[in-house]
Specification:
It contains 10 helices and 5 strands, in the order αβαβααβαβααβααα. With 228 residues, the chain is an alpha/beta fold. It has a 5-stranded parallel sheet with strand order 2-3-4-1-5, with helices on both faces. Helix 5 links the parallel strand 3 and strand 4. The longest helix is centred in the C-terminal third of the chain and has 21 residues. It starts with 10 loop residues before the first helix and ends with a helix.
């Protein structure tokens, strides 16, 4: 991890940590949405690292089918690989059994849920109904995940109204504040008001802020090497 990747406890970071804790304690299904670069994955991974025995994290890839998704989830908790002869129903039930075999509260974080199609969400709904007495679920995705799910619900797409009704609440993340951008720059040794103003004007997410800082530090290093 280089200096620009150092984790700072931004407002979004603290919000996500608090929501994850609340979802695990109360076995909620929560959707957290925010544009790419708003810090979802960083906070999810940090929460999982702090709670390795009870928090399970998977990231959705567009190429995943339902069997592969639930195989990933099962592998997180059960250390057993996907059996291609299993039906999706068997795999969901087997995975749910691992989450319910003890009464210990657990949390499943599904990142990049915006890549789900409607059918995949129905499988998550099925898993949710089997595990709601022991397991909270976080669905993390971009803002369009929320918009798409609402559109599907409003058009009565089969299965989606039932999925939507099971989401206990939505959490909308915010872009980085001016003070957060300044703090990230200062942590990395940059203390220049013109640079701060440039960050505030040009960078609308944390990833963009980090990239600008990396470029500035690289340019500074090249200048220093030139004059050695």
């Amino acid at each position: 991890m280089d200096q620009t990747d150092k984790i700072l406890e931004t407002d979004n970071f603290r919000t996500i940590i608090d929501v994850c804790q609340d979802a695990m304690i109360n076995k909620y299904l929560v959707a957290i949405v925010g544009d790419p670069g708003y810090g979802k994955t960083t906070a999810f991974e940090a929460f999982q690292i702090k709670n390795p025995e009870t928090v399970y994290y998977v990231r959705v890839q567009k190429s995943l089918n339902a069997k592969e998704l639930f195989s990933l989830i099962y592998n997180e908790i059960g250390s057993e690989y996907y059996n291609p002869s299993s039906t999706i129903s068997q795999l969901i039930r087997r995975t749910a059994n691992k989450f319910t075999e003890t009464l210990l509260n657990k949390l499943l974080i599904i990142d990049e849920a915006g890549k789900f199609n409607a059918g995949m969400l129905e499988y998550v709904h099925e898993f949710r109904d089997m595990t709601q007495k022991t397991t909270g679920i976080i669905l993390g995705g971009p803002e369009y995940f929320k918009t798409r799910l609402k559109d599907w619900k409003n058009s009565n797409r089969p299965g989606i109204p039932e999925v939507y009704s099971r989401i206990n609440f939505w959490v909308d993340l915010e872009p980085p504040t001016y003070n957060e951008k300044v703090e990230i720059a200062r942590v990395n040794g940059i203390n220049d008001n013109k640079f701060f103003k440039m960050l505030d004007k040009d960078c609308h997410d944390f990833r963009a802020v980090q990239n600008k800082i990396k470029i500035a530090l690289l340019s500074l290093q090249k200048m220093q090497n030139k004059w050695k």
